[in-house]
Write a structure and sequence with these properties.
The protein is mainly alpha-helical. It has 11 helices and 4 strands, in the order ααββαααααααββαα.
Length: 370
């Protein structure tokens, strides 16, 4: 890992060298971009990486002061790339100074060790994202469902909304090289690739299609459920008796899937189809056509169905493991009970057996001679 002192240094530019020092290399690239702000020649180029681009100033009737809004464009790729570097550095810091120290105390196996690291990183991210998302959500998101599609296309975003989406895309893009940096096991790579690609696909789709209101409202409860799951798994690794969090997670997971489907059907099936602006226009950022709406709705429904299928398989696997444990405990108890019953029966028969001399009847005895 980065920032870690090693006794033996591997060959330069070897795989082990890159894995151990990847955070240092990435921090050097980030520092070069920051140093570009100090020179006039490179300042304009460096600002494109660091600050949020495409600022639009508007004046509203309610407020006398102008309000700054943002829209997206190709320069956002540079911004996402820079914050992806920041995410890699923060990932290494959390791993070395928090998770590795806890792992040394718990003495986990290799399988639990990798899962503990995964849950620890994701729990921190979900906690920050959930808190940030709740601060962005206004009363209109919760009390007025029509706010999700009114005034579409939503070309302009507030600074917090755009920066939130930039950080979300940067984090999930950084998770791809982390599969190599963290030496993730081959059997775990497909599972992690599935959900990483799904996050990138859905978040980028909501950002590009100007559906950031719906995307933000769906991400906040989803992140809460995922935070609860990974926090419960962390407690489970520390003490296997702590499993109550999984029950609450299961209930909220099903509720969140139903909420996601309900809001998606309302937005794509009823709301956007009845708005005034219908049509497809890249210049205006309008994608309100039947093909795009049905594609988005189908993608969300298929994702929710896949997540429910994985959830049901997980619950069935857990139920089978519990039944097997109960059956093994019964088998371990039954031989002891049978042995005790045999001992008691043997003791009872030994006390109730008559002596041979008692079995002789009076008729069988010979009379004494007179």
């Amino acid at each position: 890992m980065g920032f870690r002192k090693k006794n033996k240094s591997p060959p330069v530019l070897s795989h082990e060298f890159v894995i151990q020092n990847h955070a240092d290399m990435v921090s050097c690239v980030a520092m070069i971009i920051l140093l570009g702000l100090m020179f006039e020649v490179t300042a304009k180029f460096a600002i494109m990486f660091i600050t949020v681009q495409y600022n639009v100033t508007q004046t509203s009737e309610d407020k006398s002061e102008p309000v700054n809004f943002y829209h997206y464009g190709p320069k956002d790729i540079a911004t996402v790339f820079f914050y992806m570097l920041i995410a890699i550095i923060l990932h290494a810091l959390i791993q070395e100074y928090i998770l590795d120290k806890i792992n040394r105390r718990l003495h986990l196996s290799k399988t639990k060790h990798s899962k503990f690291n995964e849950s620890g990183q994701l729990a921190v991210f979900y906690l920050l994202s959930f808190t940030w998302g709740c601060s962005i959500l206004t009363a209109d998101f919760v009390t007025n469902p029509m706010f999700l599609w009114e005034g579409y296309p939503h070309n302009h975003m507030a600074f917090q909304v755009k920066f939130f989406y930039v950080c979300q895309m940067a984090y999930w893009l950084h998770a791809l090289p982390e599969l190599y940096f963290q030496k993730v096991r081959k059997e775990d790579i497909p599972r992690q690739l599935y959900y990483i690609c799904l996050y990138i696909f859905h978040i980028t789709g909501a950002y590009v299609l100007n559906l950031h209101r719906l995307g933000l409202l769906l991400l906040v409860p989803h992140y809460l459920v995922e935070l609860l799951f990974h926090a419960s798994r962390l407690f489970y690794f520390s003490n296997e008796n702590k499993q109550k969090g999984f029950t609450l997670w299961a209930l909220l997971f099903v509720f969140t899937r139903l909420l996601t489907l309900t809001l998606s059907v309302l937005t794509f099936g009823f709301g956007l189809s009845r708005t005034d602006k219908q049509g497809f226009s890249l210049a205006e950022g309008n994608f309100n056509v039947l093909t795009v709406r049905m594609t988005c709705l189908s993608a969300i429904c298929l994702t929710q169905a896949w997540m429910m299928w994985k959830f049901i398989n997980f619950q069935l696997k857990k139920w089978r493991e519990q039944t097997q444990l109960q059956a093994s405990k019964k088998k371990a108890v039954s031989p002891k009970s049978r042995a005790s019953k045999k001992d008691s029966s043997r003791g009872g028969s030994a006390n109730g057996v008559m002596k041979p001399e008692d079995k002789t009847s009076p008729r069988a005895r010979k009379p004494k001679a007179s």
